[in-house]
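queue> holo job accepted (methionine)
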Amino acid sequence: MVKSAVLGFPRIGPNRELKKVTESYWNGKVTVDDLFKVGKELRAQNWKLQKDAGVDIIPSNDFSYYDHVLDLSLLFNVIPDRYTKYQLSPIDTLFAMGRGLQRKATETEKAVDVTALEMVKWFDSNYHYVRPTFSHSTQFKLNGQKPVDEFLEAKELGIQTRPVLVGPVSFLYLGKADKDSLDLEPLSLLEKLLPLYVEILQKLAAAGATEVQLDEPTLVLDLPKEVQAAVKTAYTFLGNQAGLPKITLATYFGTVVPNLDALKELPIAGFHFDFIRAAEQFDDVASIIGANQTLSVGIVDGRNIWKNDFAKSSEFVQKAISKLGAERVIVATSSSLLHTPVDLNNENKLNAELKNYFSFATQKLEEVVVIAKNVSGQDVSAALEANAKSVAAKASSTFINDPAVQQRVASIDKKMSTRAAPFGERLAEQEKAFNLPLFPTTTIGSFPQTKDIRINRNKFTKGTISAEEYEQFINSEIEKVIRFQEEIDLDVLVHGEPERNDMVQYFGEQLKGYAFTTNGWVQSYGSRYVRPPIIVGDLSRPKAMSVKESVYAQSLTKKLVKGMLTGPITCLRWSFPRVDVDQKTQALQLALALRDEVNDLEAAGIRVIQVDEPAIREGLPLRAGAERSDYQQWAAEAFRVATSGVANKTQIHSHFCYSDLDPNHIKALDADVVSIEFSKKDDANYIAEFKDYPNHIGLGLFDIHSPRVPSKEEFITKIETILKTYPAEKFWVNPDCGLKTRGWEETRLSLTNMVNAAKYFREQYKK
Ligand code: MET
Ligand SMILES: [Zn+2]
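queue> job finished
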């Protein structure tokens, strides 16, 4: 009998129970016992769900109150002194490391003021983990025994689980040295760390665990030799310890083939590989499976929401069975299901036809079970038949296919993706038309999204105010933002985006080819969840999406108002994409829809148009090579298709944040002006990388994530530093990103200081 396995299940609860209780705990509204009670209920619920679905190998320790990588830092006592010194409880230490803590002194407690550890994207997903942060003073030791406790909790419910932990090499390699120990190489700590893995695995064995899953997703990256060697060292060491649970080493999100040598002849029980993302690795990885080792076949997509094709998947698993025999093959999710929404049955508004094509985490449990049964020769004909019908219906669905869009994509040519003249000529025309001062000031688009805005949006969605009333409200907000910007004397104004709930969803809702969930939440970090829209079919724009607001804003002022759109790559990356066509095609479809919008804005008199691409960096394939260079090529092409339909004198801006950006990558977009998140980087090498960037550029001068107000002098110092490398003629003055999460008061103060700093430099540079 072939077994089924799940690598991890969403921890947030079907109705975001975890978010609600953690935030209440942070606000002091519930006690720590209330918090733990909900956590315990969620874990029990998830295990039972999996057990009832018939899953054979059910994970434990996939639960976390914040982030499972952070849990491991706590477990191994990788806690910088700045957190331990307050002697907080373990859970409060966890939260302080995850999100920082600022607390005034009370009669019983000391004041606390500590910032969060660095948080970064988990590979190419939109999940963020908290970076393990090591220093010379790190004292490895076991701090509690969370994996054991949770294993026992499940056992008490009569459910045998397979505990999952991030493996030692990934834990170190994904971490970093703390500020006080910059010369420390985290990987050099492997020898000290391994005994702790042994200790916790021994405890698990003593508690009754027979197997564990150790996640080593770093194996899908381009790894230096020493990291490959560390994998060999670590698993040879762990595998040779007597009395530990059987170890399955799990990798996901790509191919391990370039690192395969590190996996050969390891004394462990088996491997898990992701065949959704890298089916082509099958022959290579199968060849290193030892005579007694198991192969867990990741064939149910942990990263997307499309229903599995049982016939195709079964065929794939059969290949493994004929090579290794049924008893050594496991049918599994490709990765943890953490990246998918919890339950499709919570969607009441979704179109029934579309619903029939989707599968969320709960549905994916049935999928691994059915495939496992099918390849074991059990009768699952009813499930197979229903599945085959749904697969066939999708292939010919009118929701999916739009021949007109397909033709239009096929007709994209070089001319469509190239501006009429090179940057120099465009700039001359723009300068003549705009007459902007040196050091022009602008913002990135959004202004504070006040409670009032959210209340009115909700009223409109619920139908308690009419479309006219809502439009009037939005217009009054736009007017407020325009007057404000005039008053503080910014040069290029924006309308403030009050009408937008989210920069992708707002456009997605107006495009044909998109579907939306009401409850399809996915954890992004801590208690922040997102609800990615789903690209279901060929994408097109039935009518203008943003023209009305921009035109209204421009009608209120003589200054330039910048139109504001979300770019094709960002729309794609922050959605669940289709899997029946490639991402390039979807990006180009979005690009064409946006091209129409850009052209309409221009025709309506908008002379500066910004197309935001904050997600362009995260789309970069994890490994160097053809796929990565292809991506760079088509991502840039999509942007240019969207923005090249305008006249030379129309100025195209773009904006990037959240990323370590390579200037060479954005050169190919050929935007006239780009703004880049910079306030947290602030290092001379990074500025130097932009030295030869040909077009104009604004390095974000203040952090919009913080309410802190930088003084005029601080802005001046910052600008001076950049001017050492970067010429004044190319210099734009702007914040890091949009101001939607800020309050009005700090926005007014910060922007006023920023504008005054720009004016100071204008005086300095007067001829
Ligand atoms: C994450 S990038 C955000 C850009 C958008 N125009 C804004 O100002 O909010
Ligand atoms: Zn941004």
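queue> The mean pLDDT is 96.
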